[in-house]
Amino acid sequence: MSTVPAPAKGAGGLDQASPRAHLPAAARGLVADHAQAHPNWDGIVLLPGNVPGDPTHWVHLSAGEIISFQSSLTVRLNTALAGGTTPDMDALDATLSRPERLASHLASAELCKDADAILGHLLGAELASAKPYWLGQEIVLLGESPLLPAYRAALLSQHALLRS
């Protein structure tokens, strides 16, 4: 297993010591394909979990090299909590500005059976956590996740720089 920084193109996944994370080979392959198509690109490749158990990966790519990455379990948590597919933007904003209130926000949304608020709160917490990755960076969303549109909407609501 390789560690970062490492070329995007390579066999197997990547490990990172801090924050502790693992980028599976399939995710690395998607990043490598983007790096090959855009060799001088510098930015963030966002890979929302493709299936409910997959982590989401925020990958810093620069000139074909994976510099660092951060992973989250938002997709898995959204599935476990019966969250929706369209984030409630008020919920997203509330948790983005006060991520320490995530647990109480989720309890309220679950009590009200508000699936979109659950997703909004989870995405708000993830955006707060990943802010050093996305703020001021160009972001490309890749993969087949059913939550890809939700991530796009969440980032656009924060005026993030999304690449088409």
Automatic annotation (TrEMBL):
Q: Name one GO molecular function term.
A: 2-dehydro-3-deoxygalactonokinase activity
What is the name attached to this protein's record? 2-dehydro-3-deoxygalactonokinase
A Pfam family (short name) is DGOK
**Swiss-Prot/TrEMBL GO biological process terms:** D-galactonate catabolic process
Mark the transmembrane ranges.
none
Source organism, top-level taxon: Bacteria
